[in-house]
Amino acid sequence: MDNRYEADTRSHLNLVCSACGKIEDFALNLPVPVEIVHQETGFRAVESRVEYYGLCRECNIKG
Description:
By secondary structure, the chain is an alpha+beta fold. Helix content is 22%, strand content 25%. Strands 2-1-3 form a three-stranded mixed sheet, with no helix packed on it. The longest helix is centred in the middle third of the chain and has 8 residues, at 34-41.
């Protein structure tokens, strides 16, 4: 996995195009609040990354 530096620290999904490598942000709250994870497991999360892989709009149009 390549290292990336995320400028947007708000909760969001990363949309990664498998064809051209473009990465887009999609604003969305995390599926599970970190407080719930900590309450249930004792694990204290300090950051997370959620990524969806597929084809961006331009690569979908290209076919």
